[in-house]
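We include this case.
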Amino acid sequence: MKVLTDKVRVLLGWAVLIMVALTLGLWGFNAYSSGMTSGDAVLLGLPLILIIGFGVYFFNRHKEAASGGVIEDERSRKILESSFARAYLLSIYWLLAMGFFSDSLGLESLSVSTITGIGILGMAVLFGLCYLYTSKFDSSIES
């Protein structure tokens, strides 16, 4: 079985990004039409930041693939593996902290789907921060 080409990977990434952006837009429109609260605005703003970040990421990959370069080399794979490992461990602590502090933070009044969304959003933010740290500041990954 042939591995997906770089251009197909980039196009699939753009497709996922567009679907997530459209879903966020529909959710924002629904929240706005039913009277948006400040909590809704925050929950709408954080994924928007992630969408912009991933848009920049896919734009750079698209530019690299269009110029005929390799978009994934050994160093980028090591960065992703290290970022995933760190984000996974931090996500476990994030979810444990949410469960432990849910009473004192007032999370028990929220629905299960809202708490799940906050947990997943926190995991995505943690991965982004781990990726940024690993790619910019981790000296164990050679340039």
Q: What stands out?
A: The mean pLDDT is 81.
